[in-house]
Amino acid sequence: MPPVLHVDLLACQYTRDPVLEQISFTLERGDIACLLGPSGCGKTTALRLIAGFETPSKGSIRINEQIMSQVGAVVPPEKRQVGMVFQDYALFPHLNIADNIAFGLHPLEHKARVQRVQEMLETVGLAGRAHAFPHELSGGQQQRVALARALAPKPALLLLDEPFSNLDVELREKLATEVREIIKHEGITALMVTHDQHEAFAMADWVGVMHQGHIQQWDTAYNVYHRPSNRFVADFVGMGAFLRGQVMSSRQVKIELGVQTGIIPTQCGAEQCDECWNGCKVRVLIRPDDVIHDDQSTMQAKIIKKTFRGAEFLYTLELGSGAQILSLVPSHHDHAIGENIGIRLAIDHVVAYPEEGE
Amino acid sequence: MHRKPSTAAATRTPALLTWQAETGVLLASGDWDARGGGDLAERLDKLLSIVPKKSHVQLNTQQVSHMDTAGALLVLQVRDLLQARGATLDQSALSDDQQELIELVQRVGELTPPAEPPRLNPLQNIGKTTLDVLSNAYDTLVFLGEVITRTLPLLLQPWRLRWREIVNEIQAAGSRSVPIVALLTFLIGVVIAYQSGVTMQQYGATVFLPDMIGIITLREMAPLITAIVVAGRTGSSYAAAIGTMKVTQEVDALRSLAISPIEMLVIPRVLALTVALPLLTVMAMAMGLYGGVLIAYEMFNLDINVALTRLSALPHSHFWVGIVKAPVFALVIAMIGCHEGMKVRGSAADVGRSTTSSVVQAIFWVILIDAVFAVTFSKLGL
Lengths: 358, 382
Prior knowledge:
The complex is a heterodimer.
Chain A: E1 5-13, E2 18-27, E3 32-36, H1 43-51, E4 58-63, E5 66-70, E6 73-74, E7 82-85, H2 97-102, H3 110-123, H4 139-151, E8 157-161, H5 169-186, E9 189-194, H6 197-203, E10 206-211, E11 214-219, H7 221-226, H8 231-236, E12 241-249, E13 252-255, E14 258-261, E15 281-286, E16 291-293, E17 300-308, E18 312-318, E19 324-330, E20 340-345, E21 352-354
Parallel strand pairs in A: 3-9, 3-10, 7-8, 8-9
Antiparallel strand pairs in A: 1-2, 1-4, 4-5, 5-6, 10-11, 12-13, 12-15, 13-14, 15-21, 16-20, 17-18, 17-20, 18-19
Helix pairs in contact in A: 3-4, 4-5, 5-6
Chain B: E1 16-20, E2 25-32, H1 38-48, E3 56-67, H2 69-84, E4 88-90, H3 96-110, H4 122-156, H5 163-173, H6 178-202, H7 209-247, H8 250-256, H9 261-298, H10 304-312, H11 317-343, H12 348-380
Parallel strand pairs in B: 2-3, 3-4
Antiparallel strand pairs in B: 1-2
Helix pairs in contact in B: 1-2, 2-3, 5-9, 6-7, 6-9, 7-9, 7-10, 7-11, 7-12, 9-11, 11-12
């Protein structure tokens, strides 16, 4: 089956500095993807380009094999069959919920329209509130109305622009999971933009981490977290610390906490010849979940900071060399600051980057 | 660093700096902060002039009781002044806290504000303004073209028009403007009659007063005053309403729901005003004539029958010349209002700017077009 969305070498430039460069990805039918990045990385521009609100300066966008955007020729948003959920929902304030949802259903007969509205109201769990006005609803409810309105015309592609950023933190992840279920239920292909990795992980099959107008990594959420392709992704997604290390062989790195086996950065020359890696200095990413508290362990670290997070403590530990790492420990292991605890590493994937002249 | 309790604030010791020539030490004491440092800052230049050029100076701050960012800035000033004299300042004797503070202040000082846009000379300014005006007019023309090319097919299929919006807008722009338009044109009629009546009376020509009132009101005053009031009242509300919808992304939402904002927001407003403004103008004509005749009768003792006879003897072309302008004005006002609204990007401040701009532009173009009409009609002998 052809991809629903095909973005090819897209670039966008208003002034001299490009906002976006070389953005390429495809979405298959039913995929949910997310562009994740800090503010100003160009993710919203990418979304608006796909929606047709902006014109690209290079590249092309195809939806269902039809060229929608290319330099000098842009199909307007109203002819794209692309639904959109906006950051501030953009509900029509003078229309009630049912009329808001019915708004995009104008080509349908009256009866079919009423039926589809009812269906959507039930899908988003607001069946009883059809005649309420947007200002009478809570933020989460408004958000669901916006989703229902965008989904009602069965768009080829659904775009979501920071859909949860106006909601309470506790509500976000819960709603993200709900929204994912609704979108999957409708079988619609969706692309979301957010700066919050928890939302991205809760929603998306594919995560594209963006920085400075480029996609740094396009991968599953699991791989983005555990196998970040570069140091920016490693830093931006999740917590963690970098420890100095030295390459021992083509698959081995020695760090303070022992020799680890994993992928050696190609900059070390591991691919060119067998001995080129020798002595190459690297930084190894240590995630908090890689460090396990083990009283039997001979490796000791001193607690210098601790944060209670309910089910677990997040300890900041100092190693003998003065380097710091983070560790997630089940919260019944309550240790005092300054105490030495035994730790052991459980790293599935060693991620190392060459040292950048530090 | 010793921190005095805040109650002692009133009795601060001023910051002092003493030069000890024999050891090459600058001895600082007192409160190096915003309150205590003011005096010292003024005397700094003079004070440091006794330090020999190209010397190595040690700064001693052991007797400084309190230092804040103002004090840190003072230290930096001392350093810069000494450097200007070729001397160096050794800050190694400062406490860690003080060093940190000084570094912080220095970093902030290095942050340069964004460069001001280059100043234009008067000629460049005229050029830039001209280009802005032209490009603005061009944009409006493009917009006009887009709206017209979308309106014409709709007029051939009137069932596709958004009648509910059109009727709502006619009500908002038309019937709700009646009181203000009626009152203003009535008063204008009164003023014209009164002013011209006083002069005409001197020549015994008050019998021509109805002609005067009729011609001015029908040809000029009623269409113009109505258009200006509507530009201020309705044109601005179009800009504000559409502009706000742009800010809340409702316009984008419309487009993503496959509805053209031009068809939904602009065309109904343009059509509504094109209907409402001529109707308002007819009423304005009636009110102006009423006001004028009332004054002719009350103040200048003109017989009411004479007045009405003279009015009805006026050529009908005066009425048609006036009424023909109204739809043109309506088009201009609605187009400018909607275009200004659609131009809004981003912030709420933009909405205010667009609203103001829509009124200014609309009134300007209304009066300009009125002048063009006046010249054209007089050439045509109407």
